[in-house]
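Re: beginner question about structure tokens

> Can someone show what the tokenized structure looks like for a real chain? I only ever see the sequence side.

Sure, here's an example I had lying around. Input first:
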Amino acid sequence: MKKNRFLFENLDVYKKSLEITEEIFSVTINFSSKHFSIANQLNRAVLSVPLNIAEGCGRKTKKDIKNFYIISRGSVFESIAIIEICFRLNLINNKLYNKWRGDFEKISKMISGLINRYSKTDK
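And the corresponding structure tokens:
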């Protein structure tokens, strides 16, 4: 079993965001070349979620930490918009669309909890 050396590796939201990132990458690799731009945009948006969580944990001030969590949540919202487009273009089916929306909803709530925790300590 791998021992986590960094704080962010212990966060459930980080772990969950890695899971959906891996899942989305495995699906978008099968998009046709004419849908490369949407696959690329979705991959970049979803990848931004765990990366900003990790980077936020590496910051020293509460304001900086919170800012990276806000960016991460924004990437969740961007991902939701892109999967909506993917669904409308029939690039993903209803089952996958609903699963990803549910996963992103959970991740968004978890990130909001982190943001709220750092908002209370701003004063």
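Each token stands for a local structural state, so reading them left to right follows the chain. The chain has a mean pLDDT of 94.
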